[in-house]
Amino acid sequence: MIRRCTEKDFDMLLEIINDAAQAYKGVIPKDRWHDPYMPQGQLRQEIVAGVCFWGFEENGRLTGVMGIQDKGDVTLIRHAYVRTNLRNCGTGSLLLKYLETMTERPILIGTWADAVWAVTFYEKNGYRLVSPEEKNRLLKKYWNIPDRQIATSVVLAGAKY
Fold it and tell me: Whole-prediction pTM value?
């Protein structure tokens, strides 16, 4: 079942994000990795900034989470994570397809360039990489991330973009 996450889910959101983000360790630039990958304060900031998290619940337990954030003329998919031991079971695709129904705006997704599995996942779900020039413009316009992260990231766009 897909449902909106609430304050009661905060600790579980943090647990899922930090568990799944272990896949980035040794893949993304060392200067961008930290443990935990997403501290409590950062997750709170993301929620305050308008990221609304949705989760896939199975047997009363969240197994995957994905955020959606309206940014004026586009919608961003943010912080998509599935528990490590439950990957490749369709949870991410179900969440993504569900969130796509929540907006009429073009959808953009940013991820680490070296996270090949993530890029491949989004491409399999109908997203395409934008050019490096467009990526830089979009990341500066819609995300609040440092230049180093911009340099090491990609942006994928949905069909409406």
Answer: 0.96
